[in-house]
Sequence to fold (102 residues):
Amino acid sequence: MMKISSSRSSNLNAWPNILSFGLLCTATGAILGLLTFSRNRKNDIKSNVKNDATESAIIKTKLDNIDQFVDSIRIDFKASDQRWTALSETVIRIDKANHLKY
Fold:
């Protein structure tokens, strides 16, 4: 019986050590979790800034392309307008020449 009671008393003496170790592991895990969260949040912010910059560059490129196409359409429209003006002037001259003949 003595051995049983001595083992029980040694088990009771071990509980504070086990609890201290458990609390130490829990605190270490919480601290590591907070540090990891903080680091990942900073990386996410950097990643979001990079993504925003990339999206902004893509949008700017697309807008530049649209601007070039609009300018091209304006030039084509002016050329077409000049051709129509020249054609109408030619038709007017021919019409006046025909009226003078008859």
Remarks:
- The mean pLDDT is 83.
- The chain has one helix and no strands.
- Residues 2-101 form the longest helix (100 residues).
- The radius of gyration is 43 Å.
